[in-house]
Write a structure and sequence with these properties.
The protein has 171 residues and is α+β, with helices and mostly antiparallel strands. It is built from 4 helices and 5 strands; from the N terminus they run βαααββαββ. Helix 2 packs antiparallel against helix 4. The protein is elongated and about 50 Å long. 33% of the residues are buried.
Length: 171
């Protein structure tokens, strides 16, 4: 989606420019899905430790996956204008990518009146932060990168599919 296609109105502002939660009460329930990703770039030795299960704190991917799921469920508590959603599914995939990165993909689903983009983005972000937290003792230079929405389905705005990043493809 190019910037020229972006909505001209910010929906979280009222007519006076004040922050306002969007009223979705009259919107129909529809099935909605959002997929987001994040990457954690690290030293090759850190990634090797994670993949080989040699971390003294335990299974880094398992802890990050649980943290991401919990974060998706708590999104409305973290992002002030998000609606509380009854999520029907939260899935996180974590995988080594190349010699120095972990790719996190979060997929959230709901039958609701508003989308789940923020839940998917929050899940991916918190999973990335959890990897950083668990591994910072051996690699303080890790970088969290490319937190972004990959795909959105459902609702009035229809289907959104992000362009593939330079040099790569996504789910």
């Amino acid at each position: 989606m190019s910037l020229e296609q972006a909505p001209q109105v910010l929906t979280h502002l009222d007519s006076n420019g004040r922050a306002s939660m969007v009223d979705v009460g009259d919107k129909p329930l529809t099935n909605r899905v959002a997929v987001a990703e994040a990457r954690v770039r690290m030293l090759p030795s850190t990634l090797q430790m994670i993949v080989q299960g040699g971390h003294p704190k335990g299974d880094v991917f398992a802890v990050a996956r649980i943290a991401g799921i919990q974060a998706a469920k708590k999104t409305a508590e973290l992002i002030p204008l998000c609606h509380q959603l009854l999520l029907s599914s939260i899935k996180l995939e974590l995988q080594a990518e190349g010699l120095d990165a972990v790719r996190i993909t979060a997929t959230c689903k709901v039958a609701g009146q508003t989308g789940v983009e923020m839940e998917a983005l929050t899940a991916a972000s918190v999973a990335a932060l959890t990897i950083y937290d668990m591994c910072k003792a051996v690699d303080r230079g890790m970088q969290i990168e490319q937190v972004r929405l990959l795909e959105k389905l459902g609702g009035n705005s229809g289907h959104y599919l992000a362009d593939a990043p330079a040099g790569g493809v996504h789910a």
